[in-house]
Structures are given as structure tokens and as C-alpha cells.
């Protein structure tokens, strides 16, 4: 099975991704590392621990950064995920305790223990990954792949016309992650906006798998209401769980390669800009940067079927 660490700010779609990964026989979750974002990092850590208990999987959970590298934190996304991150359903707190290490240390230790084998799946702001690189720059050559949900190169943003939430929450960290030279695959709004998850899928999961299905259906109600009321959409976009589908079967996605830079200030803060592979520009900032694999196409029917069948 493919060894992954999931860096996450749970979050309703994070919960979908984590439960999906726990159920996938081809994925081995070495640990969850937590990050501020949808909620504060303490709440994110409790939520991650609760998801391990719900699944009966005693994988370690390591607490990560509480704030971006260089900026003041933005507001949490209560209006999307609820103040508790799980749609305000009153889910009980966890009994398990976090790993004593920081998220960044946990990432470094795990990568060095299994060189070339660990995939980092990032579902929130990229601060922990940037901190891990600072702690041990050698991990860049030893990670199998970084698969992140974030950004948008052609599609409109979701918190500004050009910015996606995970990237704008720590644009400096994101720019460091795209520039580190490890193999990065970006699944941004270009693909996640093409996959619409309907409540009926969760209803069917609930019938087949009541433990996790009940939780997901309850938590997702708040999320579906947000989509209906704010965006006029019946269903929710398949953001974080798309990364797990990609890890399980990359052929579900069509990708291009390009150099990604992130705007770290001004009106476009948080924008992910792509210089397509092979193009050079007479403007500083684009030469000598590594290529990122950017997903631009997705087979939505097969992605949703994989999610439903696995859960
Ligand atoms: C991303 O932002 C968060 O609110 C979601 O959990 C997802 O990771 C989508 O832009
Ligand atoms: Ca997330």
C-alpha cells in the first residue's frame, strides 16, 4: 500500500478525505498532521483524533502550526464548516491524545525512516510542509510525492477572484512548497469544481456503512446548506477527497506541467500563477524553478464511484 501522511484542517471535506483514505486498501496512513485553516489548530487536532477513533485506526496525530509563516491569520471558515469544523453537530471530543512531536518533526521523521516511499497529502494551508523543509531540507529529495489540494490556474478562486482558501491562508509557505524541488502534484479548483458530490451519494454510503456514513451525512448537512444558500448549488465540490482518489488512481486526472508561483501580497495575494512547461518569460521570478504537475481534467463519474465504493 502507498504510505501517506495527511496534513489537514478538518473540516468537512477533510473528514471525507480522511475516512476515504482509511478505507482504501491501497493506502496506508502513517499519520495525520494538523494545521489551522477551516478551524484553529487545536480544534483541527481534536477533530483529526476523533476521526481516527470513529474509524478504529490508531494512527498518530501530530499537532502543527497555529498561524501562517509571515502573516496574520485570516478568519476561520465557520460559515462553510461550522465553528467546530464538523457542521456544529455536537460530535463528542476525542479520548486519544496527540503525538508529542510537532507536525513538521513528525513529517521529517517519517520521511527519513522510509526514504522515497512517503507521499505527503496536504489538505490545508501549507505551513507545516514549509516548516518541515526548513527543519530538514534533505526531505525534498526523499519524499515520493506531494499531493496537495489548493490553488487554481484557470478557474476563478473561491475566496477572491484569483485565490483559493488553502493557498491564501499561507501564500509564503505555498510558494516555498512549489519551489522546493520535490515532486508536487496540485489538485486545485480547476478539477475540484468539476466534481459535484450530491447528498444521495452520502445517503447510500450511510446505508452500507452506518458508522462513518451517519457522521458524514450529519456533518455534511451544514456544508450542503452553505453550497445551496451561498452558491446556489445542489451538492458540494469534491475538494480534499480528490487527493485520495488521485493517490489511488492517477489515471482519473489529466495533468499539465508548469512552474507555479504564488502572489504573496497585494490584491492578487494567494493567486497561483502557472508558466506552462517550455515557455520562458522576460520577467524575473520564473527561471530555475521546478515544474509542478497540475491537474486540469478529471473523470468525475469515476472519481465519485471510487469514493462511494471505497466507503
Ligand atoms: C479548501 O479549503 C478548505 O475550506 C477545504 O477544506 C479545502 O481544503 C477548498 O478551497
Ligand atoms: Ca481542508
From TrEMBL:
Q: One GO molecular function term?
A: purine nucleosidase activity
The terms describing its cellular component in GO are: cytosol
CDD domains attached here? Answer: nuc_hydro_CaPnhB (cd02650)
Q: Establish whether keyword Cell wall biogenesis/degradation is in the entry.
A: no
- Which Pfam families does the protein's record reference? IU_nuc_hydro
User: For the Inosine/uridine-preferring nucleoside hydrolase domain, which residue ranges apply?
Assistant: 4-303
Q: Which InterPro entries match?
A: Inosine/uridine_hydrolase_dom, IUNH, Ribo_hydro-like
Q: Looking at the record's lineage, which domain of life comes first?
A: Bacteria
Question: Which GO terms are recorded in the biological process aspect for this UniProt protein?
Answer: purine nucleoside catabolic process
| Keyword Transcription regulation belongs to the record | no
Keywords noted in UniProt: Glycosidase, Hydrolase
Q: What is this protein called?
A: Nucleoside hydrolase
Instruction: Record the organism.
Output: Saccharospirillum salsuginis
